[in-house]
Design brief:
With 202 residues, this protein is an alpha+beta fold. It has helices at residues 29-38, 152-201; strands at residues 8-12, 19-20, 26-27, 42-48, 51-56, 63-65, 71-78, 81-88, 92-96, 104-108, 123-124, 126-128, 132-137, 141-149.
């Protein structure tokens, strides 16, 4: 369940369970609840009337690996950018337990979103267990990786263009205002100088 990213299991007590297993033996609601209580990382969180809410205790988090021998620590910078520290003695699969999307990529080192505009990924997402993302990583040793949702580049580039255009418009407006002000000040200075010239001559 942890590998699937399941956080909660809800069992309806009013459903009238009459489950048939492979051997043809029928199981009741009590059998199902007894089975749930024996699961290692599952505990009853609450019972609301006839609903039984079980919590799956995820020990690994959203970023994990296919090998228990590989250690990973991750930090979510924002929803599209994760920094990951790795200690690996063998190649492994890095697993990101979010809905599969081919837009997720792995980059070497700790990168920010602007650096990732020009970086080439070292690994692309593959489907894992039918829903998650997996990245084959061949490098061993201690190093850092960046997990990034590459389609975000379109929004980043759009934001850079918008900010640049707004800045350019503001500069052009300010430039026009400053030029007009200089011309006005110059004209006023000219008139004052002309008036004082006539005052001296008369």
């Amino acid at each position: 369940l942890d590998a699937l990213g399941v956080n909660y299991i809800i069992v309806r007590g009013d459903y009238g369970y009459n489950l048939l297993n492979k051997r043809g033996i029928r199981h009741s609601l009590e059998d199902l609840l007894n089975f749930m209580s024996k699961l290692e990382n599952v505990r009853l969180k609450a019972q609301l009337g006839s609903l039984y809410i079980y919590e799956v205790v995820n020990s690994e988090g959203i970023v994990t690996t296919s090998s228990k021998a590989v250690k990973v620590k991750y930090h979510m910078v924002n929803p599209v950018l994760y920094h990951i520290d790795v200690e690996a003695q063998t190649p492994f699969l890095l697993i990101f337990k979010d809905t599969y999307d081919k837009g997720w990529k792995i980059y070497e080192g700790r990168k920010n979103m602007l650096e990732l505009l020009w970086e080439k990924p070292i690994s692309s997402s593959l489907p894992y267990l039918g829903y998650a993302n997996a990245f084959p990583i061949k490098k061993t040793g201690e190093y850092s990786l960046t997990l990034y949702y590459e389609p975000q580049n379109i929004l980043t580039i759009s934001a850079i263009i918008c900010i640049s255009l707004v800045t350019l418009v503001i500069i052009l407006l300010i430039k026009d205002l400053i030029c007009k002000w200089i011309l006005d000040v110059g004209f006023i200075a000219y008139l004052v100088a002309k008036k004082s010239h006539y005052a001296k001559n008369s």
